[in-house]
Amino acid sequence: MEIRKCRRGGLSKAATARQLGIDRKTVAKYWDGPSDEPEKPRYNRRSHKIDPYQEYITKRLEMWPELSAERIYQEIAGLGFTGSRRTVRRYVAKIRPPKQREHKPIETLPGEQAQVDWGHLGRIQVNSASLPLYAFVLCLSWSRVRYVEFITSLNMATFAACLHRAFEYVGGVPRQILFDNAKIVVSERVGGVVRYNEQLLRMAALYGFEPRACWIRDPESKGKVESNVKYVKHGFYYGREYTSLQDLNRQARNWLDTIANTKIHGTTGEAPFKRLSEEKRYLKPLDVGQSLYIIEERMATKTGLICIEGNRYSVPAAFARRKVRYRRYEDRIEILDGDKVIDFVDLVAGRGQQIILDCHYPQHNQEKTVASHPLQAKFEGLAPSAKKYLQGLSQARVGHLREQMEQIIALTTLYSKEELEAAMKRSLDFNAYGYGRLKKILERQKAAPGSLPQKREATPSASPEMLAAVGSYRVQKRDLSYYGGVVQ
Question: Which of 125, 130, 183, 114 is nearest to 154 (CA)?
Answer without folding.
Answer: 183
